[in-house]
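residues and backbone:
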Amino acid sequence: MNRVLKIILILIFTTMVLIMRESIINPPSTLHIKYVHYDEFEKLGYQSSDLKILQTFMSKIQLEEIINKQISREVLFSYLKYRTFIFDDIEDYEKIRTTKYVTHQAALNIKHHPYMMSQFYKKTRDAINLNNTLTLVNKNYALKKDYVPSDLVYTKDINMIIKNDFSRNRLKKSAYLALKTLFEAAEKENLYLYLSNGYRSYEKQEKIYHHYKLTIGNADFFSARAGHSEHQTGLAVDITCKEVDFQLVQRFANTKEGQYVKNNAHRYGFIIRYPKDKENTHGYHYEPWHLRYVGTKAATIIHQKNLTLEEYLINYTVMPI
């Protein structure tokens, strides 16, 4: 009996030695791949703690791809912090980043939104950011025909070209309150601004575009197609002043009111949406009268960096796919 017990103990001891030996040669790994690759990961800058994290959400094939494509820790972890990162697109991201000299964040956005500022009306998709002030509506990002902002309010208590016109004197509440504050600030400088247009329905925009198409050759340069107008968001306004006979014309920029708007609109959350010398990025002629409410944070950066809304979204936000 003692002999049998002795044999059992010897077998247990031998097994434990073999297990320990195997652990030293091939340490137990949390990876789905053989631990013999650890040295390869280490050469790329990864630590064991990194690999444990990656193993929790990456497939065996993806882990192998890190080695095969020689993706460094610095590169991979620079993208992992963004919720829209797609591992299989990492080579495309890096090509964009290194050829266009942009940030990792911008590279992601450009990959996912390649036609924000080109191929106008040829690569259309649904508008994005509908639930905040950074809603993107342009020649490639469109609103549905039945889209109507939920919190439109009548623009009372501010100067209007045509009073009591319900079809043109409404805005989202946040935009209205900001516009009212802008108008009041201008009045303190003896400058009087007037609202010409606020919210505009899909159907009304359709009629306006049709009019331009009949009267002007290149209608797309002067008017948005239905569904592609920012006015439908309730965040865009056309403003004017007496000096230009309350018209929407480029010489508004040269008036005292126009200069005030150019230099101060951002303080109240507005940007000049279609700025001069940026026609290739937004697709319209220069419109110093067309303001868009984006909030003070975004407006200040856009103003200081001389950006369009599209450029701001690419460089300063994580855009939804």
Q: What stands out?
A: Residues 193 and 278 are 25 Å apart (CA to CA). Residues 16-33 have pLDDT under 50 and may be disordered. DSSP finds 13 helices and eight strands in the chain. The first strand starts at residue 125 and ends at 126.
